Amino acid sequence: MPTPENGDPTGMNKSRAASSNELSALFRPNSIAVVGASPTQIWGRQALENIQKLGYSGKVAVVNPKYEEVLGYPCYPSIKSMPFVPEAIFVLRNRESTVSVIEEAADAGVRAAVAVAIGFAETGAEGAAAQARIVDVAQAAGLVVVGPNCSGLINWVDRVPLHLGDVQARPAGRVALFAQGGGPKTSLVANKRGVHWSHIVTCGNEAVLGSADFLRYFVDDPRVKVICGFVEAIRDPERFFFECDRARAANKPVIILKAGRSEAAQRMAAAHTGALASPYRLYRELFRRHGVVQVESMEDLLASAIIMQARRSPGEGRLGVASASGGLLELILDESAKYPSLNYPNFEARTASKLRDLLPNVLECKNPLDSWGVANMEDSYPKILETVARDPNFDVVATFYDPNQAGTGNAYEQDVFADSAVKAAAATDKLVTLITPLAGSTPPEAVEDFLDKDVAVLGIQDAFGALDRAVRWARPVAPIADEPPIDSSGMAKLIREFEGKPFAGRPALDFLAAAGIPVVESRFVTDVNNAVRAAEEVGYPVVVKIGDTGTLHRTELSGVVTNLRDAQDVSKAAERLFSAGSKVLIIQPYVRDGIEMILGLETDDVLGTFVLIGQGGIWTEIMDDAALRPVGLRVGEPEQMLAELRTGRLLRGVRGAAALDTQALVGAVRRLDAIARSLGDQLRSIDINPLFVRKQGVVAVDALIVPAHGSRNK
Hints:
Layout: H1 20-27, E1 31-35, H2 42-54, E2 59-63, E3 69-70, E4 73-76, E5 88-91, H3 95-108, E6 112-115, H4 125-141, E7 144-146, E8 152-155, E9 160-163, E10 175-179, H5 182-189, E11 197-202, H6 211-220, E12 226-231, H7 237-249, E13 254-258, H8 263-273, H9 280-289, E14 293-295, H10 298-309, E15 319-323, H11 326-336, H12 349-358, E16 369-370, H13 377-389, E17 396-400, H14 411-427, E18 431-436, H15 444-452, E19 455-459, H16 460-474, H17 488-497, H18 505-514, E20 523-525, H19 528-538, E21 542-546, E22 560-564, H20 567-579, E23 585-589, E24 595-604, E25 608-615, H21 620-623, E26 626-630, H22 637-644, H23 648-652, H24 662-679, E27 683-693, E28 698-700, E29 703-707
Parallel strand pairs: 1-2, 1-5, 2-4, 5-6, 6-7, 10-11, 10-12, 12-13, 13-14, 15-16, 15-17, 17-18, 18-19
Antiparallel strand pairs: 3-4, 8-9, 8-11, 20-23, 21-22, 21-23, 24-25, 24-27, 25-26, 27-28, 27-29
């Protein structure tokens, strides 16, 4: 199997894995040349102003044959004419000139480059050829390149701006961002919500360096605590998710906002950066498998980053909440109820006793606490919140804070709530949060002041989702489950016999049986008399269906006749199917008890193979009730898949119906996973539909096996 060091196993990205040492020439170069900068062109001038503004300490030069100096920096006609070889270059030229500059840089021994020009693989064959030239040159010289079609990078820790556009000097944080899009990057970096960035980089077309490389660098950099990403498509999934696993092992959350959840957005991604986007549901399951924190909006990404950059952890999500507004507490309960990981333990007896002394008798002493009507708020509220914060039953302490008090509010009360949160944070090592009714309403300078005092400010719509994601991310990951034994050699032999062609009928059922998946008793006949005799042997009622191995979709051909109760019915059905051209018929008992399910393997060209389970029979497409996971199931994942299905309630028994054998169903799912783990490179898909789940056991009555292209040579 390919490893991250072997390059791209999918063939979608021809680049090799760059080491953190190689990337240090990009993020921490000791010298920079800005190619194409001038005193009159806004982008080139701004690139040099950014270097001055951030206080970059290395050597800086300009490459432009028109000038001898620009903004006080020496200017040379070419890279080769410079008195030193710059470690990194920032290329501000058009497509054709960019290729020439990369060639010159490679020849001169430059180690890293940022190429911002557009018009490469995202635009068609001519641009793709120009991009391929960059890749060839860079790989031959060991030159790492960001872009093209990007806006560059910023490293606030080491004060390195190789960035197209204005860069603001700011204190370095511990949250890094890689983005497959300049617009989202700008919005996230410009946030005034309190996320403190250490590094940001836009990936562009990922011709040489991709998101997996940037992940690797951020995982290895001890100054980065949290890694965020805006992703359109993952060109190198094996390396990308390998780095996600490394990040989890290093206790660094990876927070991903995935665009392209709709078909229209996927088409836009292809036009934007040349990315080929796989279905979002597959990404979602891979993110879950590899411990990625998934968000669906920029607001959610920022909220999660705020929680995860904090010096304090939300622990197990045990909330202790106090507020002077019952209505706002109701909104808190409504919002937090969406997240099962969050809960509201009771006050410890000692806490309840102290609070009772601070509250009017008319107020109930329970969590969350409504403190409306407390006399002398300035004196009592800090004591209330500190008492809650000291309770060992809680991991997170929260109170409301609303800076929008023009109109009917009292601003002094908000100062009391804010001061109380600050005092509670000073008195405990727990995560303390101020929850605002409207997200983003707190002035940025106030947000920063609160963060300095270990108080996070979050909107009510953001807070609980962010807390839930942090709590779930911190939980241990189940190990990969052991494989049940299967006859993989026998199954591989069947695949070879069909020379890579799909097959159904007897060989498909034999294939499942070799994996230990129970199959229905079947007779295979070639004439009407034997069809009647077979029906009598298996016992009425029976099913008669087309049995030709090349007939893949019998139902659409009216090739399945069910509930035949006597010889006359069987004879009539068999005559019709033989007359229609069938050479072989299958005679099976008519399975009536249990629930029809579908089990399958589904392969994506980029993201790999997935195990699927859902409602089967004629309801598969109508109900759209299915769950899937990447192959290599973890302990407990088949059970989780069943819990996600609406059909799961029927399996467990409803309205007095007996529960069905879900353990046997779980066993079938595990055996399907074992097939994929043993023969995955030889299979495109498996479709078992239906598989009946009964009070005791399961039984497959039909299947379709589709080998991978070229598997006949395996």
